Amino acid sequence: MCVQDRIFISISVYRVFMAKKFGQLMAAYSKAVEEYCKELDWDYERFKTAISDEGISNTELYLEDPNEGIVEKLSLFLEPTNQSAVFIIWDNVGMGKSSIRDFVARSLSDIPNYFTLQITDPRLTSFQMLRVISEELDIKDLPLNRMIVKKHLKSRLFELAKKGLITVIWVDEAEKITKDILSELRALSDVKTEDGLKCCKLILSGTPSLMQKIERYIDADPEDAAAFDDRASLNTFRLNMWSEEDIYNYWKLVSSYCGGANPFEKDCIDVVLEISEGKPRTIAQITKLAIHKKAIQNFFEVNIEGPKITKRDILEALEDHLQDLK
């Protein structure tokens, strides 16, 4: 056997060994979390879907208190009317725009006279955007002519509205859309029935740069921006940072969803609020890190504190996480 063959075999054996070791570690890791859930009387399967790396991924865990006004404002906005059909939700990354989108979409799915269309990646040309919306509205055999596509799309919105169905187009990360897309969406939001009711409701969610883009759009061409009415009547909502009470209520909500006790001691709230700066996504991520850290610690070590998570546990979990990122 030549040297090259020996090296190849050694590498192959090492890869098999590492794969096996990785599999064993993952199995032990999952077992640790499962055992910790048992300590808390939590449903392990429910916990797995409760918190993702992106933050609050489960619509049942949407916390209404920090932004209680948005539910009422959206409810009024979604009512059939001849008024402005554009609603803008904005704030920095990690403030819960996607969670609100999913919560509203799930709520509207239970109401038969609304059809919600979500666009989560708006990095398209204006014509591509029109085609995507048309396909979602089940318009077949789309032509390559922009004007004909727009005509079919407006007719479809009118047709659905006549049947009592209001179309809600929700564009997430809307700060990425171009002026041309904004103009096309504005035109769709201005389609009306014979009675003057808007056929389509447009919701844009994004970062503060979205509001800057809207302002520039209105200033540059006020006539084309007619669907926004004027600045005084523009439907906007800026999300709120979470408070200490919100963090505590979120932990209670997660615990209730999983079916057991809240493991976080109250002195954890201060450190989580300080580190997260009140951002919901960061709070959810810290929550997950702390639970997993405590689960592994209790599984591999003797822990007299039991399942309770302390301020020290949170700080250690964050320190370990930062080390892993290096």
Structure description:
It contains twelve helices and seven strands. By secondary structure, it is of the alpha/beta class. It folds into two domains: 42-52 and 243-325; 65-238, 3-Layer(aba) Sandwich (Rossmann fold), CATH 3.40.50.300. The strands form two sheets. Strands 4-5-6-3-7 form a five-stranded parallel β-sheet, with helices on both faces. A hairpin with a 2-residue loop joins strand 1 (51-52) and strand 2 (55-56). Helix 10 packs across helix 11, helix 10 (268-276) packs parallel to helix 12 and helix 11 crosses helix 12.
Q: Average pLDDT, to the nearest integer?
A: 83
* Main β-sheet description: 5 strands, parallel
Order of secondary-structure elements: HHEEHEHEHHEHEHEHHHH
According to CATH, what is the class of the largest domain?
Answer: Alpha Beta
Question: Do you know the CATH topology of the largest domain?
Answer: Rossmann fold
Low-confidence stretches: 3-25
The amount of helix comes to: 55-70%
Number of helical segments with 4 or more residues:
12
Q: Widest sheet: strand order?
A: 4-5-6-3-7
Features:
55% helix, Rossmann fold, 12 helices, 2 domains, two-stranded antiparallel sheet, alpha/beta, 326 residues, five-stranded parallel beta sheet
Break the fold down into its secondary structure elements and pairings.
Elements: H1 3-39, H2 44-50, E1 51-52, E2 55-56, H3 68-78, E3 86-90, H4 97-109, E4 114-119, H5 126-136, H6 146-162, E5 166-171, H7 179-189, E6 200-206, H8 208-220, E7 235-238, H9 244-258, H10 268-276, H11 280-300, H12 311-325
Parallel strand pairs: 3-6, 3-7, 4-5, 5-6
Antiparallel strand pairs: 1-2
Helix pairs in contact: 1-11, 5-6, 5-7, 10-11, 10-12, 11-12
